[in-house]
Amino acid sequence: MRGQQWTPTALTLRRPSARLPTDGFLLLALLLYAPVGLCLLVLRLFIGLHVFLVSCILPDSIVRRFIVRVMCSVLGLFVQQSDPRLRDVSVQVYIANHVTQFDHNVINLLTSCNTPALNGAPGFICWSRGFMELGVTGSRAELVDSLKAYSSHRENPPLLLFPEEAATNGRAGLLRFSSWPFSILDVVQPVALQVQRPLITVSVADSSWITELLWTFFVPFTVYQVRWMPSVPRRAEELSEDFALRVQELLAVELGVVSTRLTAADKAEHMKRLRHTSLLRFAPASSQPLAARPRLPSSLPGVGSFAPEDVRITAMAQRVKEVLPHVPLEVIRTDLAQTNCVDTTIANLLEGRVPFFPESEAGADPPAPSTSQAAAASGIQGSVAVPSSKPATKQFAKSPVERHLSLQERKRALYDYARRRFAEKHGAARAGGSP
Q1: Which of 258, 237, 233 is nearest to 247 (CA)?
Q2: Is the pLDDT confidence value at 152 over 90?
């Protein structure tokens, strides 16, 4: 995860409880709406069964899509599309960003398309959710060959693919696109998808499709905005990876988000760490005898007996301390216990989300109490109290793109400062030890 431009925390929510609003007014409105939402939930469950039966009985046509779309509006699902004339009927592959587990169903209300089932066991549930079963359980190469054979028949509906391979909240950035969807054909059409709903969050990590469906029936409405973009052909001798990156950049600009290099595997690993951290918070402190706990080497001062997780946190804290030597070690350890990521903790300290009293360096005058207290109270990094050779912290930007650029600039400057400081310290030590 080190060296990534964004952490998965910005792209998705950590836990199912994060679905509820944090604003007091919105939470009160949700509590007042709850009885109405429960009644709508029960009513829409029966209506949804009829929608499912109608979609199964009627053949795929404009009439069926119109009827199902009208019935879905009763379920609170409203689908809007901008400039449908941009949709290229000759294109056989649609590329869309992934926000909810029903994105393929929504786009299927606008045009006929098929989404292959990549995860989950085939069967009735897979078919009822609208996925296409290819019978391929092998590698990605076999999947691509099967999809190429499918697309070679022009009478088949186009393919709708989600190269992110994992859903995000759709507000911060796009996961890195996989290259295999761009190996099928040389022309694709990007589809920008945005989802909005009142009172609660649209997407939550690790939430099942049944839970998402129940929340969709509970809220007053959910609006899906579909924007068709011009088709994008592959350039001469362009690799699939470069083709995927170019389409990802176009979709990111259309959605107003950042194109990241984080993958679906990074998100899965991030969720595992969050679940592990949550379990550690609730684990009893005395569950392991002191004699059985591993100890760190005595070369680390101030470190006693630690559990394996404490050993890892301490090692990560030392890495952060090398970059930000003026930040107290205990503040770094506390934030690392929450984020479980070195880059995220550095970003939190740089952006002022973690207030602290800066430490004075060896040989430097201690900072004035009033200056340090004012910096910590205002949530600023405290750069006024550290040597002037360190880069100054800028004001937190509102735009994700501006935050991304400013953060990278400050991290690069801090890395340069840390290397220079390390070279000066060890250079002085070598000069003092030489005859």
Answers
A1: 233
A2: no
Residue with tokens 């088709």, as numbered in its chain: 231
Is 161 in contact with 141 (CB distance < 8 Å)? Answer: no
Q: Are 172 and 10 in contact (CB under 8 A)?
A: yes
Does the CA dihedral 413-429-332-4 come out positive or negative?
positive
Model confidence pLDDT, tens digit, residues 48-74: 999 999 988 988 889 999 999 999 999
Task: Please count the CA atoms within 13 angstroms of the CA of 304 that sit on its side-chain side.
Answer: 3
Per DSSP, what are the bridge partners of residue 381? none
The helix/strand/coil state of 131 is strand
Return all residues near 350 (Cβ < 8 A) that are at least 6 apart: 381, 393, 407, 410, 411, 414
Q: Is there a contact between 232 and 190 (Cβ–Cβ < 8 Å)?
A: yes
Could you read off the pLDDT of 296-319 as tens digits, one per residue?
444 434 434 344 567 778 888 888
Closest to 387 measured CA to CA, from 323, 316, 326: 326
Pairing of strands 131-132, 232-233: unpaired
C-alpha separations of 415 from 154, 213, 345 in Å: 54, 46, 15
pTM: 0.62
